[in-house]
């Protein structure tokens, strides 16, 4: 697939985990020989931290109004009561790293499946920000070279090199891991969700399932309280999104499974095409992805926005139809005998042509057909062997 840079980033993340684990073990070994010294330093630090805590609580080191602090505290208490949290931490002493046979492809947070849109609303600890988000593909057949099955969605958040959060989701099974845990543990509970939480030195790991979605959360550097708060935020946003989606589904009783065709061939200029993805979701392509355009196109097709994925595209559907018409006429008039086939690929927002010529004048004909440039993808065929080439933008 694409994104060699992303793949390298994922590999670096795995190396960081190994490096962090090694550093932690080194400090642990040193600590055995200097136990009294470390204890004394820790005690002094504890006194300093306690003093700062008292000052902050009285408002001397914060500009946050007292009323706002009280409100935040009440919200946190109500949140904890509603979630009915029972936490059991299973400490493990050994964790083995492993390798994965998979491929990755970036995905924008605005293009997430409906079930995972709640991830945008998760409250991560202060200082962390989304580093990257990507899809993980695996092989349906180990003998094939193609990674053709979407397995996981992964979201990486980072504060610095030793403070990392990784959230993985899958509709197939437990998300793929780069580590192995053989031990069984006690079950924790947040609201109606059962979880198994493991702790390995500064790393927390948890797996759980909700409404057909499997989750795997791994953090390095978070405190126990920060980890639990993050878990509660994920579960709270997830449950609210589920209830909202169910309400929308109940109201949308007249929604058709597939968009109807627009009877008038004068498509709006902002409309770029449509297709159904691997998950059976309707995908609408728009040259200008605005609220008004979404509403109008859904009305024309007889579908709802809630049941539709929107993606931005470069070429309008009318423009691609115009190109396809020009190519078809040339083929019918035998003005371009070097063209074997031509097809409008709505999911790729382009025209795909198969030719049997390497002559410059033949290629120039295709450039003339596409005045904007880049809308035609050429596939050269010779002795039943195809080699893909992308027609560069016309100067």
Q: Residue share in helices? A: 25-40%
* SSE ordering: HHHEEEEEEEEEEEHEEHEHEEHEE
Distance between the terminal alpha carbons, to the nearest Å?
A: 29 Å
Large-scale geometry? elongated
Q: How would you describe the overall organization of this protein?
A:
The protein has helices at residues 4-33, 35-57, 66-83, 224-251, 291-301, 317-332, 360-369; strands at residues 89-91, 96-97, 103-106, 129-138, 149-160, 163-170, 179-180, 187-190, 193-200, 203-210, 213-220, 271-276, 282-286, 308-312, 339-345, 350-355, 376-382, 385-390. With 395 residues, it is of the alpha+beta class. Among the domains are: 65-247, Phosphorylase Kinase, domain 1 (2-Layer Sandwich), CATH 3.30.200; 317-390, no CATH class. The two termini are 29 Å apart. Mean pLDDT is 74; it is low at 21-63, 253-257 and 383-395.
Summarize the structure.
With 395 residues, the chain is of the alpha+beta class.
Keywords:
34% helix; alpha+beta; disordered C terminus; four-stranded mixed beta sheet; Phosphorylase Kinase, domain 1; nine-stranded mixed beta sheet; 395 residues
Provide the fold topology.
Blueprint: H1 4-33, H2 35-57, H3 66-83, E1 89-91, E2 96-97, E3 103-106, E4 129-138, E5 149-160, E6 163-170, E7 179-180, E8 187-190, E9 193-200, E10 203-210, E11 213-220, H4 224-251, E12 271-276, E13 282-286, H5 291-301, E14 308-312, H6 317-332, E15 339-345, E16 350-355, H7 360-369, E17 376-382, E18 385-390
């Amino acid at each position: 697939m694409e994104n060699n840079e992303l793949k390298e980033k994922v590999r670096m993340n795995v190396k960081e985990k190994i490096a962090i684990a090694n550093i932690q073990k080194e400090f642990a070994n040193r600590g055995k020989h200097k136990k009294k010294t470390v204890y004394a330093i820790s005690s002094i630090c504890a006194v300093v931290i306690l003093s700062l805590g008292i000052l902050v609580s009285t408002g001397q080191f914060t500009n946050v109004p007292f009323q706002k602090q009280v409100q935040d505290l009440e919200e946190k208490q109500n949140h904890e009561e509603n979630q009915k949290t029972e936490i059991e931490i299973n400490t493990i002493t050994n964790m083995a790293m492993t390798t994965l046979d998979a491929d990755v492809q970036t995905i924008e947070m605005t293009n997430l499946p409906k079930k995972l849109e709640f991830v945008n609303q998760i409250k991560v600890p202060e200082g962390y920000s989304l580093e990257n988000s990507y899809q993980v593909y695996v092989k349906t057949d180990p003998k094939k070279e193609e990674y053709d099955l979407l397995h996981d969605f992964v979201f990486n958040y980072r504060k610095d090199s030793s403070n990392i959060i990784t959230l993985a989701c899958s509709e197939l099974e437990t998300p793929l891991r780069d580590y192995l845990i053989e031990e069984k543990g006690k079950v924790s509970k947040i609201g109606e969700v059962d979880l198994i939480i493991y702790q390995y030195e500064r790393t927390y790991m948890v797996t759980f399932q909700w409404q057909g979605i499997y989750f795997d959360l791994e953090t390095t550097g978070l405190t126990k309280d920060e980890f639990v708060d993050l878990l509660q935020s994920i579960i709270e946003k997830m449950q609210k999104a589920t209830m909202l989606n169910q309400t929308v589904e109940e109201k949308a009783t007249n929604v058709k499974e597939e968009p109807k065709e627009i009877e008038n061939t004068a498509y709006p200029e902002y409309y770029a095409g449509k297709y159904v993805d691997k998950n059976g979701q309707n995908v609408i392509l728009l040259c200008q992805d605005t609220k008004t355009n979404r509403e109008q196109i859904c009305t024309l097709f007889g579908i709802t926005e809630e049941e539709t994925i929107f993606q931005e595209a470069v070429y309008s559907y009318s423009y691609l139809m115009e190109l396809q018409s020009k190519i078809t006429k040339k083929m019918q008039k035998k003005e371009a005998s070097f063209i074997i086939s031509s097809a409008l690929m709505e999911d790729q927002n382009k025209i795909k042509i198969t030719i049997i010529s390497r002559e410059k004048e033949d290629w120039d004909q295709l450039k003339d057909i596409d005045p904007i440039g880049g809308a035609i993808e050429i596939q050269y065929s010779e002795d039943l062997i195809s080699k893909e080439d992308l027609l560069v933008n016309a100067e």
